[in-house]
Amino acid sequence: MELGQLQLAKYLLETGKDHISRNAPMSYGLAISLAQDAVEIFAWTVVKEKNISVKDKEPFVGLIERIQTSTGLQFPFGAKILELNAIRVKFKHFGNLPIPEDATKLVSYAEECLRQATKLFFSCDFDSISFADLITNLSIRDRLKDAERYLSEGKCIECVGKCGEADLLISQPLESLLPKAEHFGSVRELFDQDRARAARSAFDYIGKYMDGLRAVGIAGLLNIGGKHYFRYRNLLPIVYQTMDSAIHIDHRRGNYSEEDARFCLKYVTEYGLKVQQWVESE
Known about the structure:
two-stranded antiparallel ribbon; Four Helix Bundle (Hemerythrin (Met), subunit A); 2 domains; mainly alpha
C-alpha cells in the first residue's frame, strides 16, 4: 500500500480543516481545494494499488467512475464529493468564494469519505495513518507512536505525557538557533545582601518573560496559530531533563479528555514536522 500517498492525502485534509477554523473568506476556498486534492490523491492511490486502467490525465469525475466500475464498489459519499469538486472548480477557476456553511459541510464529507474509503479499499483505519512516521529522529518518533498507542487505549494522561517528552526533544535543536535567555543568576552579586533576593526575583522574572517571548516568536516563525499555541501550552505538562539525561514529567492537571489528548498529539506532531523542515533547511 502507498502509505506515503495516504499520508499526503490525510495531511492535505487536516490542513484544509485548519483553514476552516480560521473563519476567513479566502480560507474557505482553500479548505475546499485542499479537501478535494486529498480525495483525488486518495483516488489515484486506489487506481495504482488496484491496477485500474485510466488515462494519464483522467478528470476527477472519470476517475471516480473508473474506480467504481473496475472494483464494483461504490466510492463513499460519491455525490457529495462531486459537489465538492464542482465548488472547487468555481473557486479555483472563477474566483467564486464558497459559502462558509457549505465549505464546512463539504470538508466534513471529504473526511468521512476518506475514513470509509480507507477501510473499504485498503482494509485499514484512517486514524492509523500516522504523520509520526515522517519524523526522522527515532527518539521523537518512538514517543509520538507511544502517544498514539496510549490515545487508542484511552490512556489520555499517558498520551499527553509522551507528547510532552516529544515536545522537549523537538525543541532542543532550536536552542542553538534561538538560545534561551540567561537566568541572570550572577546579577544578584552586584547588590548587597539585603537587596540580593529582590534582585534575583526581578531578573528571574525578566528571564522567564524573555523565554516566553522567545517561545511565541518560534511559534510565529513556524506559522503556528496563536490560539492553538496557547491552548497547547496550557495543556502540556512541565517536562525537564536532568544531567543524567532522564526526562521527568510534572502534570499540572489530574486528567485530560480524549479531545485534549488528541489535540496535543496532532499539535506536537505538526510541530515536530515543522521544526524538522526548518532545521534541515538551515
